[in-house]
Design a protein that fits this description.
The protein has 142 residues and is mostly helical. The protein is built from four helices and no strands. The chain has one domain: Four Helix Bundle (Hemerythrin (Met), subunit A), CATH 1.20.120.
Length: 142
């Protein structure tokens, strides 16, 4: 494995995070608190590993990939990328707040913020995979 494999690794970590988030959501809806906790901790861990890989890749590989072709799809790609990037920054404190409230067993407060955290975190995870697929698989840039 080389540094140039990290985008695929990052997409895989985002996909795994989305799966774990969904499993955690379904677990709590079914009243399975331990399964919910385990899934959410695993989703957080996966996201932390993703962030380490992402920062390693961008700190090491100095080239920037620009989405140029097809030109008709570029505005759609940039919209997805912009919302993904902005929400990726916004979601970090929400994730930490949500996890901390659960850790402190303040479950009513946890639930209130989790209603926002879950869909935003899931969106960021899924759009991370979409960005990878568009940039490297569907419309590979030269």
């Amino acid at each position: 494995m080389t540094l140039h494999d990290l985008p695929a690794v990052n997409a895989s970590l985002n996909a795994l995070s989305a799966i774990l988030l969904t499993a955690g959501y379904l677990s709590i809806r079914a009243g399975k608190k331990t399964a919910h906790r385990n899934c959410m901790i695993a989703a957080f861990t996966t996201s932390v590993i993703f962030l380490a890989c992402y920062l390693t890749y961008h700190a090491t590989v100095k080239t920037i990939t620009h989405f140029l072709e097809p030109a008709w799809f570029r505005p759609i790609y940039l919209t997805i990328l912009l919302t993904h990037t902005v929400l990726a920054v916004v979601i970090v404190p929400l994730i930490l707040l949500t996890l901390n409230r659960a850790r402190l067993e303040k479950f009513e407060l946890h639930k209130k913020v989790a209603r926002w955290t879950f869909p935003l975190w899931l969106y960021v995870s899924v759009t991370g995979v979409v960005v990878y697929l568009l940039l490297y698989q569907v419309f590979p840039q030269k």
